Amino acid sequence: MSRVVRQLKFLNKISSTTIKPQILLNPESYGALNLTFQWQNHNGHMGARKFWHEYLPTLQFYNPELKINISRVKNDKKDVMVPCKLEILSPTGSVVETLDMRDKDKESIMDELLAKVNHERVSSKEIVKV
């Protein structure tokens, strides 16, 4: 597969084939998302990592003004608990909601985010396909 074909496939995954995060957030209500999770996948952090890889690119694509801050904590000690959370921030920087992502899969995290934020679906006419 050529590099161009791989890039087109990747762009389509971000813009058109990953459906759940195809939403529009009001920039007057939400300023940023902060994700904090462990570098490694143990202690229930795999869902947060998958959410970051699979859903956040599409969310960012349709909400380019939304800041997304990722904090992946490197931890050499397996017994120390690293937070696994998603914070929704207002435009002023105050925390509006906090979601616990520990031991949840990417779909559950996205469903919980959709339940917490005021959003609208991207219309089918606005879906970008290259």
From TrEMBL:
Superkingdom of origin organism: Eukaryota
Major site of localization recorded for this protein: mitochondrion
Pfam family, one: L51_S25_CI-B8
Alphabetized UniProt keyword annotations: Mitochondrion, Ribonucleoprotein, Ribosomal protein
MF-aspect GO terms: structural constituent of ribosome
Gene Ontology cellular-component terms listed: mitochondrion; ribonucleoprotein complex; ribosome
Positions of the Ribosomal protein/NADH dehydrogenase domain: 40-120
Entries under InterPro entries matching the protein: Ribosomal_mL43/mS25/NADH_DH (IPR007741), Ribosomal_mS25/mL61 (IPR040049), Thioredoxin-like_sf (IPR036249)
Cellular localisation: Mitochondrion
Protein name per Swiss-Prot or TrEMBL: LAMI_0G13234g1_1
